[in-house]
Amino acid sequence: MIFADVNEPLKINQVQVEFTEKSVSSWGGLAAILGKYLEQIKFEDWVLKSIPIQESSPNAKGVYEKVLAHFLTVLSGGERFSHLSWWGHGVDVLRKTFGVNWLPQSPSVVTRFWNKISSQSLSEQFSFSARELASRIIGWEEIGNDNLNLDSSVITRYGKQEGAHRGYNPKKKGRPSHHPLLAFLGQGYVINLWNRPGDTWSANGAVDFYDQSISTLPQGFQVNYTLCDSGFYYVELIENLEKQGQKYVIAVPIQQCFQKQFLNIDTWEHCDEGIELAEFFFEHDDDKWTKPRRYVVVRQHLESRPEASGKQPSLFEELENWSNYRFSLFITNDSDATPEEVWREYRPRAADENIIKELKESYGLASFNLKNFWATEAVMVITALVFYNLMHYLNCNVLNANKPKQQLKTIRPQWLIVPALLGSASRRSILRIGIKAGEFREKFQAALLKINSFSITCNCDAVDTS
Question: pLDDT digit string (tens) for 8-24?
Answer without folding.
Answer: 788 888 888 888 888 88
